[in-house]
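Issue: copy button drops trailing tokens. Both records pasted manually instead:
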Amino acid sequence: MQEYVSDRLVGTLVDNRYAVQSKLARGGMSTVYLATDLRLEREVALKVLHPHLASDDTFLGRLGREAKAAARLSHSHVVGVLDQGNDGQTAYLVMEYIKGHTLRDVITSKGALPPRLALALIDPVVEGLGAAHAAGMIHRDIKPENVLIADDGRIKVGDFGLARAVTTSTSTGALIGTVAYLSPELVLGKQADARSDIYSVGIMLYEMLTGRQPFDGDVPIQVAYQHVNGTVGPPSALVPGLAAEVDELVQWCTANDPENRPVDGMALLQELRHIRTNLTDRELDLQPPAALEAGLQNPTEVIARTNNPTTVMSPLAPPERPPRFPPPSFGDNATSVVPAAPSPPAAYVPYPDTSPAPLTKRARRKAERDAEKARSRAAATPLRSLHEGNPRRRGALWVVILIIAALLATGAGWFFGMGPGSPGTIPAVANKTVAQAQQLLNEAGFQSSTRDVFDDDVPSGLVVGTDPVAGTETRKFQPVALFVSKGPQLFELPKLTGMTLDEAKSELNKAEMALGTVTEKFDEGIAAGMVLAQDPASGTPARHGTPVALTVSKGPEPIPVPSVVGMDEDDAVDAIEAAGLKADVAKDKVNDRNVPKGSVAAQSPPNGTLTRGGTVTLTISDGPKMVKVPSYVGKQAKEAEQALRQLGFDVKVNNILGGFFGTVRDQDPVNKEVPEGSVITLTVV
């Protein structure tokens, strides 16, 4: 997905939770940013609505309901809706971030695709739509830009719920969608259903197979007119050799009358996979003509089709009589309803021509179907009447038939004019009790049923909304579903104690819970970095996104080692134990002339910290070493002084008569043991 130049939101924090990193794309309704969810620590796609939509309170309320409905749809081929909110003037949707590109990028870069690739790409799109249709959801804006292809090959449909919310928020008679893919009923302002999405899929498949859209024009209204009054031609008109089954699939999806299309995505998916299974490799791997691979021959048309913003426009008024011919031209650049097939290059022969042409095959299959219908009609029609009757009886019969027809017409007029078939508008019943909501619906002429749903905002027992939504005009005999809140959906919090902090964060992400305050605490028995406690406790029911506070061990508390060198042995041991440490007295003592006997001469470690119960080794002094003092009387004073100092004594020299001869006359002490370091006095003459 291409990254665009940053704007005012890049680098800001939306709703104190979503850190906007960069701008990804801009469309007709919103701008999409890459953001980081700080609470759950993951990348998300942040879709910020344009100001004209964000300032409409009615729309924001409707968008919230549609977003919740989309969030309940969980499917591998549908982009997940994670959150929705309003931060001041910034209204936003939070969706799953799909790193990759769109189907539009594939069509733009490759042009017409081989049938195998086109059908493989459309399959997950139809599967995702089928799941949405089964859940009662309609997309209304299917186009290549809304088909996301992840770098790992996953294909997902995005923007569920947004088109419906915007459609119902616009002025009366307005419609929304990309004109190139709009179904005729949406152009005419009629009610959309699953078959409207099927039409858009058919247009998209046509474009994937041929490299161009079936209808074009200088202005959107020209394209919309052709959707209503035109017919989508077979793709094989532009791609010779394309299998007849593929032509029929595209034209089945793009039939003008919704009754002639597949009823929903699941019905289309079944037929699509049947075709993919039964086509030959030759038919699946058919290569489009080289001229089509680059798209249209007109470069301006190629540029125009690389961007399909969602468009809001007024629907066309339905014509009084369906035209039997293509619509008139719009100026000089008239466009025919069924595009003419360009002549393929002379050298283009996809495969040796050993089978009948596709059009002949299609004609043969049509003739077989028509023959079968004719046989069925013939079998049901008698060759002659068994009782001819008489004119008077036939006249009476016609009178009875006319009376019955009149009664039926009168009944139908009452049914559709004043009775259950008359139109009515769904009243607003949100945040009311079930009894109040049912009374309002009954007064409006509707029958209702209730469905219990989880809702984070509406209290339990009150109505969340209806299907169809409030404000929708529909026939009174149509059932109305009341969605009744069960309150927020609660999930048991996982057990995090005993995990590392990183493991606990990962477990919170899996449970879609948030990381709360992290507090560190010393613990003598638990290693540093391990979770000691959590709040709320494990097993507590909580909403998704609930912050969980963690207490994390810092390991055993460090204790400073006291210095006890020079202290008496007993006092030193008491000081070590008072600090919470253990004193270990070495068996061997040492002589130390500076430390009295019985006192601590050394300790290990001498300083720093230990954990509680750590050991400090004490070495006790045995006092100074005893050394025998030899006699140096009669020797030279310098020689005697040097020898005594080498033995560890201090030497004091007393000179008599100036010590002229330098000879030791007397020495004190002499020939006895004295402590090392004692002072030896020499008398020198």
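Record 2 (pasted manually too):
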Amino acid sequence: MNLIQAVLLAAVNSGNHKTWHILLPTFQFGSNISSVTHCSTRLRLFIRNKSSVNLEQIKKTKPVLGTVFSGDELQIVLGKNLIPIYNEVSKLHENSGAPASAADNTPKGPMTPKERVKDLSSRLIGFISAAVTPLIPGLVGGGMLKVFLLLITLAWPAFGETQTYDLLSMVANIPFYFMPVFVAYGAAKKLGATPLYAMTVAACLVYPNFVELLKGEDPVTILSIPVMVVNYSSTLLPALLIGACAHYVEKLLTKIIPGIIRPVFVGMCTITITFILGITILGPLGDLVGSYVVNIFLWANAHIGPLAVGLLAGCMPFLVMTGMHHAVTPFMVQAISDPGYDIMFRPAYLLHNMAEGGACLGVCLRAKNKAFKSQCFGLAVGCVVAGVTEPAIYGVNLRLKRPLIGVVCGAAAGGVVARLLGATAYVYGYSTILALPIFEHTFLAMLAGIVVAIAVAAAVTFVLGFDESICVEEEETPVPAPAADPAPAASAGPVEVYAPLTGKVIPREQIPDETFATGVLGDGVGIEPEIGEVVAPFDGEISSTTETFHAVGVSGPGGIELLIHVGVDTVNMKGDGFTLLVKEGERVKKGQNLIAFDIEKIRAAGYPTATAVLVTNSEDYAACKVSADGRVSAGDSLITVEQ
């Protein structure tokens, strides 16, 4: 099963996994997925109706490493496979015409006060996570560029006096200086608002003329309301509030302003009202709240000292697994901005990553299976050097359970040692051993914490032991083939797919459905039918059917999987005009009738009759060549699949 196909189907609808390649194109992608984004290892889908998501189906799909629901955000851990999958998912989402609003319109029953509080906190965390996630790659990129420049100046002090250094430093500072603008974008996207309105107001907060005006000796007012003097550069919470305000103002104005003048006045009034509220109430409030939250953590550090870092580091694996780790990101960013250093968050993040690597190293040292030992060593290196922990968490430590104890012990011990020695991050960087320079003159303290975290995690894991068969059997034990009714044996030569309908052949790209046309569901062709009959394209087995009878999947020689989908959006006809003549699991012969359908009834319902004939596992073959052109009769050669 293609990963993209399975993930999208499961996220859109909890259908039978056997019908994934039939059901997927019939769903409106935007009906349940409001927005799509990603971080370094996770695909993040914002879901309107969580009850319809088939998590078990997603988890069973390789190479999914794990799934997490944080608020209304579905996080699918993909590791190194993330980017190509995200690109396809994002493309499908954009082509779906998904509605702008991210609100969940699913009817809900009355909630208890406890459920209301839980729902509110869940939505708040989801909002913060969605707003901050698009910003993180920029912060990491800028922070690591600062580290790189610092290393160069240490080795070559004269470089710090060059224009090259000045210009590159400028680039490194941009993600931090203009952080309110980027956060406003993320907040607006999450809420389904027009991002430019929120971004415009956020940009005003760091606009040079506005900054200079606040620095002046005379008090600043707007509509006779005092404007507080706040340095908004590198702040995050003010932008979150402004993004939310812009959304609700735009929503209200869209309702009350007549349609004929709406394009002119909604934007103007939205940025004006949001700006006034932003510089008088929301901005100062966000700055105040952010400062207080950071001070709470500083207070914890002052009163319980090293235990605060150790406790946070020890809890970090559970925060990562529940997707809660991004909820503290705003405060980590705030700490770097004011007071200008981070004594808690970044050390805890980094030491957790080191402990995950240490636990994998402990598994590697004790495991007997050579392939598994090699895998664990590679995951350990990934945690320590690349700072990517999800493959280690979901692939080894969580599955074996006991290594997770080693992670907690190692991270906590490393946190206590690092804080005792005064480890402090002064630049926003990544949580990897390569980011040690962000700790500047305290990097030896951080290095000591890292050594302790890795050593303790590895030692505890080694001593406690584990049942490696949990992982080894899952990866290496072959699944026995069914004794009865085996699938057709694979052949070395090409496989012929014969036309299942009579009609005009059209290129796949011209099928009037984006999912079919782009080839996401596999390569093949379309047929504009002249006769309302679908016949078997080869000797094989019916692998899947639908309740609405409009499509069928057929397995055949060489392991080929073929989808025959009659019409576009014909699922909406709910079976009217279709008669299914076979059942799932039935063996069929080439030319045997599979579906009878009424062409005129489909047209009268307003749906295209173009029928997709797609090899859904075409990526498993060398080529799928269309061997027919113009008009074909049922039984004529249509596609040649080369192995």
